[in-house]
Amino acid sequence: MFRFDPTYLKLQKLIRMGEAGQPKEGESTRPLVSGGSGESVPASQLFTSLPALNEAASYINQATSYLGSCFSDYSVEYGGQGSCNSISQPHELLRLTSGADGSSPVSVCVTPGQRCSTSSEASTSTAANSPSRESTETLSQSSNAIVTSNGVGGFYGISMFQGLIERARRTVRGSADDIGWLQRDPEMPPVEDGTDRFNKILEDIGHGVHRLPNTLVYLLVPGLFSNHGPLYFVDTKTKFSKLGLACHIAKIHSESSVEKNAREIKEYIEELCWGSNKKVLLLGHSKGGIDAAAALSLYWPDLKDKVAGLVLAQSPYGGSPIATDILREGQLGDYVNLRKLMEIMISKVIKGDIQALEDLTYERRKQFLKNHPLPRELPTVSFRTEASISPAVLATLSHVAHAELPLTNQATKLPVVMPLGAAMAACAQLLQVRYGEKSDGLVTCCDAEVPGSVVVRPKRKLDHAWMVYSSLNEVPLEADAAQVCEALLTLLVQVEEEKQRKAATKND
């Protein structure tokens, strides 16, 4: 049985409509609207004489200009510069449906200093007083003329469509091309795996063997939003003090830019050295590691005799995909105004600087490390972890603050807890699904490995918040955050001693 194809029927209908619009032999090709003397009225006067059409044409022109401006950054050029196929400014291109003699369409450009023409216009240019040429010149002088065109509409549609595809591609790709750039850069020094040594030190600490010397001052540098977490590093500092170690937490405005915090950390180091006459060992968590590294990079000539080494724990040394996807144009943050919300929250609510988040994007990190690399002679240890995404983390609560209730003569302290583990697991799952990268919830593993450092890669699943906030349901036989910090600093001391021995051997 023969079956009619709907597409075929539609094509036949379009063909009949097109034939109906063509002038037949013997028919007049004069316009429907003419002047009183019988002469044709120019297109600009045609729309003026019909207010309804003029209003509709004006609306179409405004809509076309608006759409053209929306996608002007993503327009596609066809042909060379100055060609009719170049559509870098689609809303400035006008086109005749047909010439006065029923010939092929004629294109004109209303952009000052440019003029486009099709092959049909070139073929009619031999006639000096050709109606088609006169009509073309009239329209080219009128930037307000509205002319429909199937050909330009096709080019413009293709330009818009490819612009949308390009924007969608950049949105989907996100930070995929930036993650792990440190490992791909041939100029970056290689890392050394110190996981086995770290595990041995951590095991000794669990048996009560502590090797951190009291001849150093230990400075803990907190990360982003630490000013709003009263217990940030507090447990670690308390346990260090019980061991008889001089330990301090840098009181910086963590929501400030990296360079501003670097100056404050420099002043902290100089003050500690002046007061104790000891070298300083730094441990920075998250953005705190970036701030501490920036202080040593920018002011190394002044600090090289005052600093013994640096530990970067879960720091986005190469950059953060979370910060980049929020702030970079064309990313997911554009579609929900996330960039504006973050700017309001940081600048207005917590009185910080949006540059603190911008400094963690891949673009800023690449630029900063190119201009201010970390000194090669500085002993460095980097610590990166992977967050658990199992359902068990949903029950994990982090102790972030105390609430005092004056119910009796003595104020009663109640723990303030937050499900940070669940939030980190959700972010880690997002990065795993979108980029195929393992992370602690905020920082990918490869971006936390500092080139030239001794890297610690524990098998234990630890999220980004675990390092600084104690959990209410800690595993009794597992090391806590304070012990992990102690093990990292002990490993750093060993790395420093090895470098000193190597330097002494070279001098001999």
From TrEMBL:
Coiled coil regions, renumbered to chain: none
Residue ranges, compositional bias (Low complexity): 117-132
Lineage: superkingdom: Eukaryota
Region (Disordered): 19-38, 114-142
Gene3D superfamilies in the record: alpha/beta hydrolase (3.40.50.1820)
Protein name (record): Alpha/beta-Hydrolases superfamily protein
Origin species: Eruca vesicaria subsp. sativa
